[in-house]
Design goal:
The complex is a heterodimer of chains A (113) and B (115). Chain A is mostly beta strands and 113 residues long. Chain A is built from no helices and 12 strands. In chain A, the strands form 3 sheets. In chain A, strands 2, 5, 6, 10, 11 and 12 form a 6-stranded mixed β-sheet that branches. In chain A, a hairpin with a 5-residue loop joins strand 5 and strand 6. The radius of gyration of chain A is 13 Å and the shape is globular. The model of chain A has no long low-confidence stretch (mean pLDDT 92). Chain B has 115 residues and is mainly beta. Helices cover 0% and strands 56% of the residues of chain B. The model of chain B has no long low-confidence stretch (mean pLDDT 92). Classes of the chains: A mainly beta (113), B mainly beta (115). The interface between A and B is medium-sized, with 27 and 30 residues.
Chain lengths: 113, 115
Amino acid sequence: AQSVTQPDIHITVSEGASLELRCNYSYGATPYLFWYVQSPGQGLQLLLKYFSGDTLVQGIKGFEAEFKRSQSSFNLRKPSVHWSDAAEYFCAVGPYNFNKFYFGSGTKLNVKP
Amino acid sequence: DVKVTQSSRYLVKRTGEKVFLECVQDMDHENMFWYRQDPGLGLRLIYFSYDVKMKEKGDIPEGYSVSREKKERFSLILESASTNQTSMYLCASSPRGVDSGNTIYFGEGSWLTVV
């Protein structure tokens, strides 16, 4: 079965600290992977995506993610968190034709001053 | 910039009413989607459409139907709204197929409360 697991429902980090949000997927074909961010009451904004090639991908707002096929993971990282990063983050996996994407349940990030 | 517009941000409807949620995209995308978002459950796909008049059920289609008469417009219909359909509804669109520049674009969401 296809699925995405984000094991951390809530994470709190101090401003300036590093961040890693976990994402594990189960997918029967070549995965196309995404991280999205959602601010309260808003739609989802793309942070970064992995289709092929270099397994470390850079995104907007200083985020990066690493695709590890052997671990079926696509973890999101940021070296130094800013208060404006407080939001909910979603990992997603989908097929080459871009239909039927599977989303994780999300991780809510709180940032302490 | 790609724009996905959901016509209603906030709606309050009564149980049993027929509800229409409208979505328009301006980038000539083939694919359009309706997701439902609930706390702790993430986004769940209700229906998607890969072309005009074409649709496929997602994971939770029960109680919903869709219409795509024009490429840019994808409507979600609740034939008889129930309280368990109170939720945030997200429309999205994407090109068909993998290309380095492709992704899924989301609207800002429609908050539906059924009383």
